[in-house]
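From the shared-data thread, chain only:
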Amino acid sequence: MVGGLRIFTDRVGDGAGQPVLDVNNGEGLMHVQPGVSIVLGNRASESPGTLYISTKQVVWLSDTDRTKGYAVDFLSVSLHAVSRDPEAYTSPCIYTQIETGSEDNESEGSDSECNGTLDLSKINEMRLVPSDPNLLDTLFEIFCECAELNPEPIEEEEEVHNWIFSADQMEDQTLEGEDSGWDTSLNPTNSIGFSNGDHDLTRTVLELQIDDQRFEDAEEMESDSNSTHQ
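Structure, as tokens:
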């Protein structure tokens, strides 16, 4: 499920505090970088805060306002890159694109702010601007490492769709079997033989059927032989 950018205010400790992480589910802190400004969409840059990168999410917390902070899960970060082009942005930064789960991702429009309130569901771009541009490569490498820890989940339908066959597909498989001389009179309980194009598994199933047929033929021959001797 895509969550997009969200407000983050869960802090512990004195002063600016630190973010509360979900340690019970294995979330760990990977990197802390002070002196980082955040830019959401086309809005003005926020005053510098502290960037926290965990194994699950990116958290930015204001150093001066404990009620101000933003977070985004790595599963919602569809792209991250180092930007040093002054035509793209005035300062070198980590540029990210964020999946919001909404069909209308107009982060550049005025719809991202309504009655003075920022609508984070409309924000699909975020820039992180460190006070020291030399840190960009390090931050980028950490982003890459954490992104690898959070691969996009496989939908259940994608996992099982190869096990569902239409009548036309079953007919095509049967015709192919007839042309090759194999016995392909498989009922749906044996359709595992055609899953994911696993021809070795198909061959194994068919060979088992042939062995069964040979076993039956041997029984018939033995029965006929016994009848003759009697």
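The domain at 6-149 is CATH 2.30.29.30 (PH-domain like).
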